[in-house]
Amino acid sequence: MNLLTSCVAIPLVVLGITISNMSTPVSGKKLEITIANDLGNFLNLTVHCVSPAKEYDLGFQVVPYGGRYQWFAHDSSYLCDLAWHKKYGRFLIYESRRDNRRCKGWCFWRIAQEGLYLHLAKPADRDELEFTWD
Q1: Would 17 be classed as within a structural domain?
Q2: Which residues does UniProt assign to the signal peptide (predicted)?
Q3: pTM of the full structure
């Protein structure tokens, strides 16, 4: 192994361990949360999500129009600050008692100018407006 190979391999191994640990939920089940920017007009969405006890702080993310931000959640709750243009809101994006049954392993949120839509696969394949901007 030459110097270049070892310089690349070591960070990749460390990164692999970090990603593995972050994506393994406490209960052993993986629940994916996706926030999709559908604001239009090439507007960016700023996202900052934390678990209520601030055990998990996902940091600030800027999601471009048409982009997505995804993570694997632990069996807890996630509170997210969302901001775009001159709008701001704090939303309970995931709460296990409320969402385990209706998300079924994947909570897909479409963020639009009218508000936040949660995709519900059953009983009908549709997006339901859950929150509006104040």
Answers
A1: no
A2: 1-28
A3: 0.75
